[in-house]
Amino acid sequence: MYSVVLADDHPLLLRGLQGVLKAAPDFNVLAATASGVQALSLISDLRPDLAVLDVSMPNVGGLAIQRTVLKERLPVKVIFLTASLTGRQIADAISMGVWGILLKEYATEVLLDCMRQVASGEKWLPPELVARATSAGPCP
């Protein structure tokens, strides 16, 4: 069973994610929060296998959390769940070692497939998103 921390500033989506994962026998949600600051604290304290994070949250978003995970070498595989990402954000996420990127428009089965693949040590980076990143390039 894989441990998970969830973070999204939309309460309805956060509850929905918890419900989906509660029904999946291979995932255990350790904590869920609407705060990026709290998500970073939870990741640091609980050391989950996976963190599913919204990229755009007030104060501390997913990219800032991934930057800290990388800097502090926290043993968590980060998956971004987002409504939209610019090519530059995708390039930055990939260059910082994010394990997966999912758009919120995807079906729940795709989320579970992504989480299972990432948990097993494989990246989940859809080609159409990577193509956007390639055309934007990383931040200077």
TrEMBL record:
Superkingdom: Bacteria
Record's keyword annotation contains Phosphoprotein: yes
PROSITE patterns named in the record: RESPONSE_REGULATORY
Cited InterPro entries: CheY-like_superfamily, EvgA-like, NreC/VraR/RcsB-like_REC, Sig_transdc_resp-reg_receiver
Modification type 4-aspartylphosphate: residues: 54
SUPFAM superfamilies xrefs: CheY-like (SSF52172)
PANTHER family, alphabetized: HTH-TYPE TRANSCRIPTIONAL REGULATOR YHJB-RELATED (PTHR45566), NARL SUBFAMILY (PTHR45566:SF2)
Protein name: Response regulator receiver domain-containing protein
